[in-house]
């Protein structure tokens, strides 16, 4: 569900911004295709300017394992399998998004200039799901596991989107790109308004980097997600003390510390690129280890 | 257009007992509903119909058929018009089911121990020995409180004489109770005033009653027993019901792989380590329960479960081996069981049943096939039935060959025109055949039956097959005083 929410925000942002003529040229959908599909560079380049085709690919195409329809279907199947651990309200929230995604006319609405309305409708359902989960789920181990998944996904999403944007400027931290160019990233992470209120200096590139990596008031920042991940991990391990679970906590602690104690001033372009790649690997490895430790028999 | 116009056009079928229409008049217990419906506009009822469908879909009250990893979900069709049973009739049904269950339970205890009923020649030994669901592995096992049939669904039909008859006993893993409960919740949304004004007996306490009984089956020295519901998993067509009941009772829903047996004790694998399990409400058939004892290829069960069961370290609900008592050939002997064990006459009669293992009965049935329905003794869900009034010549020839090779496993019953009830179909009221499945819970304090049960309706015109897998639907069932 976190992935669905992220996908919708990014898609809606891109769709809206693509109607403005970009200062550096026309925006294409190519970066989105590279992030959310397994399209080859050639396919991405071909489709890159065809809004309708791209929206169908990332939202309704069931051959794309990261399409909204597939993600929501999987979330729903997961929910079906753990119904005794989630509340009825949470189940109904997931189920209703599923039926919306499976409903007839979804593709048609994407074709007829109703795309933004449809994406906003889904976004509202995702927000509703988040609210219902927060209000109804008991704060037990189930809740902690849900949040582990959510914040892992959020961390990886923030990394992927940020990495993609910095890739476009060749990780050049001295780039003088205007804040308008960074809107895409900030709006995709729901962070534009916070940026405007928080950062006053003209060092836009560094400011954006700080916000998405280190700003603990920003719910989509990497550090925010990692802090919450650690909290929920400790909650889970508290109920399940063993040498392996303590090792898991230490493993995560090292990842968290790496981000928490990083100096923005010491980051250069090469360091940043490596940092993104290594951190992504670390998080994926942690995720795998978490699954093996708690769910290995399945 | 108002509904009273449509109601006036409702044709009570000839020669069939209609639940709403009496002789020349609406039956007393339907008058309030008839009058209230008459005040509504057609568009209003259509809207309620749509709302009901959406409610079912949104809550995921479906049954699923999986193929190629794609889940095809179907709403269990629901007709908005309730089926109503007067309280005095229900009380008789309740007494009849209580009597029947007591006798069947005593039969199961007997058949898996002394087998006195066979020694006294009330039931032929060959019938039991040839029953595919007679579970030899259950012989001699003591069960808590000597209760074998904790949860049952007794299928009743009403004939044209207005009497209720028992059509079938479901004593293994009867399903449908979640639909009964959810039907009531949906009715509360679409007819709130009518429901409250009609003083309908409640059904909502079923999960609590069931949980209470499950707890009572645990070993007495355990103060806080762990009860689990064992499901085959998400691919089972009744999975929704399993999740529903687990949630309503606040117990864990597990699959076979979530359980393990160590030193003849059953444990549940949790993130906190192994947790002892005392009672298993299983929705898995006997043959899949333990691959070390039954089907070795079963991936649904728990290796070693039978050893724990035998030692009395875990209670299993319903008990193993109940299938011998709901075999359709053994069904014919239930009135004899009631007389034998309870020294009473059956309150609820059986539908006349012909054992096709009897040559005379077989000859009679074959000569009168057009008026008969033939069923496999160990089949359920309406599958494999041969409806004599609709079977073609070629189909009958083929079926007859199967029967003659294996006649022990077939019975026949006369086709009984089930009672009808008005259903709201395509914007009009149409009579459709129904049956009734009350759900009974048998615990140490006796048999408790939830008022009403599930009314299943054959939605196809003229059809007598009410099973969901064959296109049937359901109605909310009101017992009113």
Large-scale geometry of chain A: globular
Q: Which oligomeric form is depicted?
A: heterodimer
Number of β-strand runs of chain B: 22
- Which class do the helix and strand fractions of chain B yield? alpha+beta
Distance between the termini of chain A: 22 Å
What's the arrangement of strands in the largest beta sheet of chain B?
3-22-21-18-17
Largest sheet of chain B: 5 strands, mixed
Rg for CA atoms of chain B = 23 Å
Largest interface: which pair?
A: A-B, 18 and 20 residues
Number of domains of chain A: 2
Q: What is the share of helical residues of chain A?
A: over 70%
**Arithmetic mean of pLDDT of chain A:** 89
Beta-sheet strand percentage of chain A? Answer: under 5%
Helical content of chain B stands at: 25-40%
User: Number of DSSP helices of chain B?
Assistant: 15
Which class of secondary structure composition applies to the elements of chain A?
Answer: mainly alpha
Unreliable spans of chain B: none
What is the CA-CA span between the terminal residues of chain B? 32 Å
What keyword list fits this structure?
heterodimer; A: 298 residues; mainly alpha; 2 domains; 15 helices; 72% helix; B: 481 residues; alpha+beta; Rossmann fold; Dna Ligase, domain 1; five-stranded mixed beta sheet; 31% helix
């Amino acid at each position: 569900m976190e992935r669905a929410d992220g996908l919708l925000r990014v898609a809606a942002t891109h769709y809206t911004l693509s109607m403005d003529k970009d200062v550096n040229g026309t925006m294409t959908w190519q970066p989105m295709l590279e992030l959310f599909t397994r399209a080859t560079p050639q396919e991405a380049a071909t489709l890159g300017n065809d809004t309708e085709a791209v929206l169908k690919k990332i939202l309704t195409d069931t051959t794309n394992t990261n399409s909204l329809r597939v993600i929501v279907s999987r979330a729903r199947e997961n929910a079906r399998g753990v119904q005794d651990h989630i509340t009825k309200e949470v189940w109904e929230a997931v189920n209703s998004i599923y039926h919306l995604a499976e409903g007839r006319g979804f593709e048609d609405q994407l074709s007829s200039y109703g795309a933004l309305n449809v994406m906003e409708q889904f976004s509202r359902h995702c927000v509703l799901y988040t609210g219902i989960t927060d209000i109804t789920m008991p704060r037990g181990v189930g809740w902690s596991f849900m949040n582990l998944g959510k914040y892992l996904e959020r961390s990886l999403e923030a990394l992927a989107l940020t990495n993609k944007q910095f890739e476009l400027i060749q990780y050049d931290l001295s780039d003088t790109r205007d804040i308008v160019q960074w809107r895409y990233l900030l709006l995709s992470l729901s962070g534009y308004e916070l940026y405007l209120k928080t950062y006053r200096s003209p060092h836009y590139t560094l400011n954006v980097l700080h916000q998405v990596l280190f700003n603990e008031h920003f719910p989509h920042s990497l550090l925010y997600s990692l802090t919450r991940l650690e909290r929920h991990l400790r909650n889970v391990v508290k109920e399940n003390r063993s040498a392996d679970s303590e090792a898991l906590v230490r493993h995560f602690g090292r990842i968290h510390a790496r981000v928490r104690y990083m100096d923005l001033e010491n980051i250069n372009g090469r360091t940043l690129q490596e940092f993104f790649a290594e951190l992504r690997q670390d998080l994926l490895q942690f995720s795998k280890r978490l699954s093996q430790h708690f769910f290995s028999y399945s | 257009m108002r509904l009273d116009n449509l109601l006036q056009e409702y044709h009570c079928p000839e020669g069939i007992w209609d639940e709403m229409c009496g002789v020349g008049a609406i039956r007393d217990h339907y008058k309030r509903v008839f009058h209230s419906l008459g005040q509504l506009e057609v568009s209003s009822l259509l809207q309620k119909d749509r709302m009901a469908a959406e409610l079912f879909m949104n809550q995921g009250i479906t049954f699923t058929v999986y193929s190629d990893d794609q889940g095809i979900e179907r709403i269990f069709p629901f007709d908005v018009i309730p089926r109503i049973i007067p309280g005095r009739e229900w009380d008789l049904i309740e007494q009849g089911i209580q009597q029947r269950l007591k006798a069947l339970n005593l039969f199961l205890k007997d058949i898996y121990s002394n087998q006195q009923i066979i020694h006294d020649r009330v039931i032929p030994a060959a019938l039991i020995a040839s029953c595919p669901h007679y579970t030899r592995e259950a012989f001699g096992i003591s069960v808590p409180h000597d209760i074998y049939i904790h949860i049952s669904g007794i299928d009743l039909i009403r004939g044209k004489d207005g009497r209720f008859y028992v059509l079938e006993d479901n004593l293994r893993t009867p399903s449908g109770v979640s639909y009964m409960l959810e039907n009531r919740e949906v009715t509360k949304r679409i007819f709130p005033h009518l429901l409250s004004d009609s003083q309908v007996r409640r059904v909502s306490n079923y999960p609590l009653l069931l949980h209470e009984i499950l707890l009572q089956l645990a070993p007495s020295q355990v103060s806080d027993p762990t009860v689990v519901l064992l499901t085959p998993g998400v691919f089972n067509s009744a999975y929704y019901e399993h999740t529903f009941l687990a949630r309503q009772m606040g117990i864990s829903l597990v699959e076979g792989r979530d359980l393990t047996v160590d030193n003849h004790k059953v444990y549940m694998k949790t993130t906190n380590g192994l947790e002892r399990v005392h009672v298993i409400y299983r929705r898995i058939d006997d043959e899949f329960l333990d691959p070390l004892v039954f089907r070795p290829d079963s991936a649904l069960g728990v290796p070693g479960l039978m050893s724990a069961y035998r030692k009395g370290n875990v209670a299993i609900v319903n008990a193993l081996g109940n299938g011998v008592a709901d075999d359709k050939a053994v069904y014919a002997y239930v009135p004899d069981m009631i007389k034998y064990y309870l020294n009473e006459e059956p309150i609820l009669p059986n539908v006349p049943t012909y054992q096709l293992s009897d040559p005379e009965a077989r000859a009679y049935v074959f000569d009168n096939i057009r008026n008969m329905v033939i069923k496999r003794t160990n089949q359920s869900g309406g599958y494999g039935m041969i409806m004599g009034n609709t079977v073609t010549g070629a189909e009958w020839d083929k079926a007859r060959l199967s029967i003659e090779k294996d006649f022990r496993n077939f019975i026949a019953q006369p086709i009984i025109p089930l009672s009808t009830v008005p259903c709201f179909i395509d914007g009009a009221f149409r009579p459709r055949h129904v049956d009734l499945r009350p759900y009974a819970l048998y615990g140490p304090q006796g048999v408790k039956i939830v008022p009403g049960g599930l009314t299943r309706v054959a939605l196809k015109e003229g059809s007598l097959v009410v099973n969901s897998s064959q296109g049937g639907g359901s109605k909310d069932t009101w017992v009113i005083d």
